[in-house]
Design a protein that fits this description.
Blueprint: E1 8-13, H1 20-33, E2 37-41, H2 47-51, H3 82-110, E3 115-119, H4 123-130, H5 137-148, E4 151-156, H6 159-164, H7 167-171, H8 174-185, E5 191-195, H9 200-229, E6 235-239, H10 252-264, E7 269-276, E8 280-284, E9 287-293, H11 299-316, E10 321-325, E11 343-347, H12 352-359, H13 363-371, E12 376-379, H14 382-391, E13 396-399, E14 419-423, H15 433-443, E15 448-452, H16 457-469, E16 478-482, H17 486-495, E17 498-501, H18 510-517, E18 522-525, E19 538-541, H19 546-558, H20 560-574, H21 579-595
Parallel strand pairs: 1-3, 1-4, 2-3, 4-5, 6-7, 6-10, 7-9, 10-11, 11-12, 12-13, 14-15, 14-17, 15-16, 17-18, 18-19
Antiparallel strand pairs: 8-9
Helix pairs in contact: 1-9, 3-5, 4-5, 4-8, 10-21, 12-13, 15-19, 18-20
């Protein structure tokens, strides 16, 4: 069936005694009640057939059957007499002309809506009437007309019914005609059989259902054709182990990827592959989320399992571009080796060097090997950009910082605050919480210390033990308040005097930027990855110098004027880091990789290193 907006052409076929004309009238009435434009066409035979009360009995010489009704259909060489063939061509030509005119009328009256042309005779009736050999030219003409019909309803009645209506006296034995109808109906497309022995209302209802189904299918075909005609939305997949619903992490990386995914969804079809306790997919805000069931095995084993499954998932999900947020402990998953599409590595958690210092396991060897597979890498700060360029000289390395929600700077609140705040994931060694508690106990600043965040059960137990060890006297000055939801987090940032970030390893420090947007100074160790804050209201202590960190903490806690001056600089600096700017750079990168024609790959030479084949 075609997908054009032309009228739906439906024929009601069968012997004359089957009640075709009355069925056309009933169906036309039912269709009009549904608001459709209907043109009924009674087109039995050509003008010769209509002129003579009884159609001329034409048979060839030596044709078996003295009554002239039976023809020899088994002889492939017989084409019928010239008069029979001329009559067939005339009949077919008039049928084609009449349905063409009826289609124009229906189109004009419908005015863009659905229209149906119903005929009480179709090409099937013509083929049965003349019963020409299948390979004849006249039969081919009728078949071409049959292709124009969307549906042919064949009303089947028993021989006894036709005999009761006087059929045999006019046309001959009904069994002969029904044999012809069944033979030709198997050769034509889109034939639907109706039980003509049922009550007329039931036959009309069955015919209506068939026509309505055809209209719906035709509308669906038009919609599919429109979808295929539209430019295909290219598919971008973003993968990250961390997720906002993962209680063991819920770090800044998940927030960043969420912002990036929503910005990419403006121009692309986006899928986010992440970890979960149970597998499955869901659609949220126009983005498809695929969760890999790896969290049940624990946080550390879940990360390794996620890295193992990621190449397999990349081979199953068709994509045009893949953005991979690196996952500890190896960071990279060698994903570019498993897909022909461009892969962009996002360095939000490359921590192999830090894990080497902590566990003395050379994760960094795998990481360095994997980085050489990537041709496009995004880092959060210039210091990491220099390291990655050295490890992967052929990669296009871009520095795209994180962003923050922009807010007006409250001048009246600058320098104020009731406590010192640590906000982030609970990971004692990486986040330097042991160093923070030692510095706080040694310096004993006048403000209390609040720790807000959550982590794995083991890390939370470790922190609880540390807090208990550093708590003295009846009035505790160190409080761990657990995970802070968005509203609670904003309240803590507004009410704190300043933030502390004693991390041993960071890639950007999104929490620091959030605190700066509230006009709060940030105290941190002078790590290369955190030097983007320099002269932005931050206070840097020598790396891992607990005494110096404690001295700076006391100085900020006792000097409100210093906090006010640094807080103003922090608030102004944060205004240069917007989500719109950051996500816009990811969108521009995706367009550059997908809109530029890819250069053909060079064939791999035998014995060549696999590191140099991409």
């Amino acid at each position: 069936m075609t997908t054009s907006r032309g009228p739906l052409l439906v024929a009601v076929s069968g012997p004359d005694g089957a009640g075709k004309s009355s069925l056309v009238g009933r169906v036309a009435t039912l269709l009009r009640e549904r608001g459709l434009t209907v043109v009924s066409l009674h087109c039995y035979g050509c003008f010769l057939c209509r002129r003579f009360p009884v159609p001329p009995r034409v048979r060839d010489e030596a044709e078996p059957g003295g009554d002239g009704w039976a023809r020899r259909a088994t002889d492939p060489e017989r084409r019928g007499s010239r008069l029979r063939r001329a009559h067939a061509f005339l009949d077919a030509g008039e049928l084609a002309a009449r349905i063409t005119v009826a289609g124009l009328r229906a189109r004009r009256h419908a005015r863009g809506g659905e229209a149906v042309v119903l005929t009480d005779r179709g090409p099937l009736d013509g083929l049965v009437k003349f019963h020409l050999p299948a390979g004849s030219a006249a039969a081919s003409v009728f078949r071409r007309i049959a292709d124009r019909y969307a549906l042919t309803l064949l009303v089947e009645t028993g021989p006894d019914t036709l005999r009761g209506r006087g059929w045999e006296e006019i046309a001959g034995p009904p069994t002969v005609w029904w044999a012809r109808y069944r033979s030709w109906s198997r050769r034509l497309p889109r034939i639907a059989r109706l039980d003509g022995e049922r009550a007329p209302s039931l036959v009309a209802a069955a015919a209506l259902d068939r026509i309505v189904d055809e209209i719906r299918e035709r509308a669906g075909a038009r919609e599919r054709a429109r979808d295929e005609a539209r430019p295909r939305r290219r598919h971008v997949v973003v993968s990250i182990y961390d997720d906002a619903e993962n209680p063991a992490y819920r770090g800044g990386g998940a927030l960043v990827i969420g912002k990036v995914a929503h910005r990419l969804a403006e121009d692309f079809r986006v899928t986010v592959v992440t970890a979960g306790r149970s597998g499955g997919t869901e659609e949220r805000n126009g983005i498809r989320y695929v969760r890999l069931p790896v969290c049940r095995v624990g946080p550390r084993a879940g990360q390794l399992l996620f890295l193992t499954l990621l190449p397999l998932v990349a081979r199953r999900i068709r994509h045009d571009l893949w953005l991979e947020s690196f996952t500890p402990p190896f960071s990279t998953s060698f994903l570019p080796l498993t897909t022909a599409a461009p892969v962009v590595g996002i360095d939000q958690g490359r921590s192999a060097e830090a894990l080497w210092r902590r566990y003395h396991i050379p994760f960094f060897l795998v990481e360095r090997l994997g980085l050489r597979c990537y041709r496009h890498i995004v880092v959060m700060n210039p210091a990491d950009g220099s390291v990655v360029r050295r490890l992967s000289p052929r990669a296009d390395v871009q520095v795209i910082a994180n962003g923050v929600e922009q807010r007006l700077l409250d001048e009246t609140g600058l320098g104020a605050g009731q406590f010192i705040l640590f906000l982030g994931r609970i990971d004692t060694w990486v986040k330097g919480l042991d160093l923070l508690l030692d510095a706080y106990e040694r310096a004993a600043p006048p403000l209390q210390l609040l720790l807000a965040g959550s982590g794995t059960p083991a890390e939370e137990r470790r922190l609880a033990a540390l807090v208990a060890a550093h708590t003295h006297g009846p009035e505790p000055r160190i409080h761990w308040v657990g995970y802070a939801e968005e509203e609670r987090k904003c309240q803590l940032l507004r009410d704190c005097a300043f933030l502390v970030m004693p991390s041993r390893h960071e890639t950007f420090g999104l929490v620091a930027l959030e605190g700066m947007s509230y006009g709060k100074p940030v105290l941190h160790f002078d790590l290369p990855a955190l030097r983007w804050m320099r002269d932005g209201g931050d206070v840097a202590a020598p790396p891992f110098d607990v005494a110096a960190f404690g001295d700076r903490m006391s100085e900020l806690a006792t000097d409100a004027a210093l906090r006010r001056r640094l807080g103003r600089r922090s608030g102004l600096a944060a205004q240069h880091y917007t989500w719109d700017e950051m996500t816009g750079r990811y969108l521009a990168l995706a367009h550059r990789l997908l809109d530029t024609p890819a250069s053909p790959r060079r064939p791999r030479k035998r014995g060549a290193s696999w590191l140099m084949t991409r």
